[in-house]
Every structure is written in structure tokens, then in C-alpha cells.
């Protein structure tokens, strides 16, 4: 991708818009996990899309908008994602660091 700043800007937006880490320090690692997970999903989807053709800023923006529609505008997604994370990592929120690589 020729515009790597787009993903960086999205990550900064997620940090600021979620008021990370917020007032509840007890859930700070879970909040971080969710931010890393969103970033991982975007990078994964873009990787798959890159096998079909060139990735430009428009494709990145559409991908982010589509994911945001599913995650930010859904009342049950937080509870479902937390349940899935707990099932996968057994309470070890540091395991999200494996998704960054």
C-alpha cells in the first residue's frame, strides 16, 4: 500500500475515540486487545484483497468503513467479542500481542 499513514491514522483514531485507557484501568488490557483485534482484522482483510488487485486508499477506507459498520454500530458486538476472546485466550489479554506481528 502506498499510503501507510491511512492505517496509522485509523489506529490513532481508535485510541482517541475510545478514550483509551479511560477511567476504568481494570479493563485497560481488554480495551487494548479490542483495538489490536480491529487493527488485525483490517490488515488481514487488506492482505486477502491484495491478492486480487492493487490496494489503494479507497479500498482501505471502504474496508475500514465496512468493519466499523459491523463493530461500532452493533449493540451486542462487545459482549460477543469479549466472550470469544475469553474462550480463546483464557483471560490472558497479553496474548493480543501475537496478532501484531
UniProtKB/TrEMBL annotation:
One of its GO terms (biological process) is methylation. Keywords: Methyltransferase, Transferase. GO terms for molecular function: methyltransferase activity. It comes from the Bacteria. This is Lysine-N-methylase. It comes from Enterobacter cloacae.
Amino acid at each position: 500500500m502506498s499510503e501507510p499513514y491511512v492505517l496509522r491514522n485509523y489506529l490513532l483514531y481508535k485510541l482517541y475515540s475510545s478514550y483509551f485507557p479511560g477511567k476504568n484501568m481494570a479493563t485497560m488490557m481488554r480495551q487494548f486487545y479490542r483495538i489490536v483485534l480491529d487493527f488485525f482484522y483490517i490488515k488481514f482483510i487488506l492482505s486477502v484483497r491484495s491478492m486480487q488487485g492493487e490496494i489503494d486508499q479507497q479500498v482501505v477506507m471502504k474496508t475500514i468503513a465496512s468493519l466499523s459498520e459491523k463493530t461500532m454500530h452493533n449493540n451486542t458486538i462487545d459482549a460477543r467479542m469479549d466472550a470469544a476472546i475469553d474462550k480463546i485466550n483464557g483471560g490472558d489479554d497479553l496474548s493480543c500481542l501475537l496478532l501484531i506481528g
